[in-house]
Amino acid sequence: MSPSNAPLNHLHTLSRNLQPASLFRIRSPTTARSTPLGPAFIHIPAAMSATIAIPKARKPMPSALTFNLEAKCSTTKARASTLHLPHGPVQLPIFMPVATQASLKGLTPEQLAETGCKLCLNNTYHLGLKPGQAVLDKVGGAHVFQGWNGNILTDSGGFQMVSLLKLAHVTEEGVRFLSPHDGTPMLLTPEHSISLQNSIGSDIIMQLDDVIATTSPDHARIKEAMERSVRWLDRCIDAHKYPEKQNLFCIIQGGLDLELRKECCKQMVERDTPGIAIGGLSGGEAKDEFCKVVNTCTGLLPERKPRYVMGVGYPEDLVVAVALGADMFDCVWPTRTARFGNAVTSVGTLNLRNASYANDFGPIEEGCQCICCRCKANGGLEITRAYIHHLAAKETVGAHLLTMHNVHYMLAMMSSLRQAIIEDRFPDFLRVFFLKMYGHSSNIPQWAITALRGVGVDLLAD
């Protein structure tokens, strides 16, 4: 593959239609003028776009992370490790809250830090839209822009292109879509996605991948998406300007087809990125299928690199995925559900809008050490369920308080899980977790029982 000095005619047409304020106009690294296609635009000949390209001979990619594996469960595939990133160490396994537009809805950076968060997500698509790349370059990146001293992971923007925008169309060049503002035709390429993330300055950046729902019946399209994701990774690697400061993670695709997943793992591992993500899940597939994919992929990935399962946020999904060998997770669910009056607790999700909580003067969760649940003598706010019930339907502060609680709960749960791995009592942790959440062994979902039996843990054993 070689850079094309003359992009396809239809791309010239696309370029002429783009306006100066368009979302995906970026400055070329070699000139001050604007280009809508991104630097080093690559045209892939049709003959090559039908296959996975052989990895180019490159120097080893510099890494801005250190991964220290500290403990392994003697029964399951669970691991405890520390990921050293440019903005500080992060203990794995970890749940990462999603601060979509450089803000966790309703929380200040200080309040987010109060939850114990060391690594959060920002959204490349939304930051490219607003404030835009020029502002991010001027201010010095998203850390400065949002006043956040912790680490940031950014997605590539591809998922939002396909899931949020009408008439999005994926081609070998990239993702074509219509501007959400004025309907202008636009194009996001792998090169441009990386350029945006370079401007954001995130500690972990994600490749642009070809995203397709796991529930799609079109096997040929799933195979195409997997192979294209590998080719796009090569373009992302070539476009990445700051590998010594930002860590590029590849994304494994292949739908629910385990053979495609195996082939994608092989190809991605050969590219030797600092970390590896398992993508395309949590899209409506059955939980047992989800578990098979995670288990298959983690079994083929390097032991000394972080493994990130994208879009996973339910507590029971997290603990099972950890048992299957995964390290990192993200999801909007804990924060989104807070805005509907729901508290995430060890006994399940509590809808505090229900009338039964109107006279419940206990904390959101007994024993929780978040700032909302702690008593005032210990520096907390001593918020009661009754108070949240009172606020939930009337005041946004109720959602803010529940957001702090929910994020803290998720992070504290992962910390407890990590300690159980270090002390080699993770199977017992799993049994206690599921019994407490579901009340009785007969209520535990079969998918979790089956998945954990596959790694040596019987949730139904006495």
UniProtKB/TrEMBL annotation:
Active-site residues annotated for this sequence: 155 (proton acceptor), 330 (nucleophile)
Function: Catalytic subunit of the queuine tRNA-ribosyltransferase (TGT) that catalyzes the base-exchange of a guanine (G) residue with queuine (Q) at position 34 (anticodon wobble position) in tRNAs with GU(N) anticodons (tRNA-Asp, -Asn, -His and -Tyr), resulting in the hypermodified nucleoside queuosine (7-(((4,5-cis-dihydroxy-2-cyclopenten-1-yl)amino)methyl)-7-deazaguanosine). Catalysis occurs through a double-displacement mechanism. The nucleophile active site attacks the C1' of nucleotide 34 to detach the guanine base from the RNA, forming a covalent enzyme-RNA intermediate.
BP GO annotations: tRNA modification
Cell compartments where the protein resides: Cytoplasm
Cofactor(s), names only, from the UniProt record: Zn(2+)
Quaternary structure, from the entry: Heterodimer of a catalytic subunit and an accessory subunit.
UniProtKB keywords: Cytoplasm, Glycosyltransferase, Metal-binding, Transferase, tRNA processing, Zinc
Cellular component, GO annotation: cytosol
Matches recorded under InterPro entries: TGT, TGT-like_sf, tRNA_ribo_trans-like
A UniProt-annotated Pfam family: TGT
Sequence ranges assigned to domain tRNA-guanine(15) transglycosylase-like in this UniProt record: 76-437
Coiled coil stretches, renumbered: none
Major subcellular location class: cytoplasm
Reactions catalysed: guanosine(34) in tRNA + queuine = queuosine(34) in tRNA + guanine
GO MF annotation, one: tRNA-guanosine(34) queuine transglycosylase activity
NCBIfam families registered for this protein in UniProt: Q_tRNA_tgt (TIGR00430), tgt_general (TIGR00449)
Family per similarity comment: Belongs to the queuine tRNA-ribosyltransferase family.
Positions of region (RNA binding): 311-317, 335-339
EC number, as in UniProt: 2.4.2.64
Protein name: Queuine tRNA-ribosyltransferase catalytic subunit 1
Residues where substrate binds: 155-159, 209, 253, 280
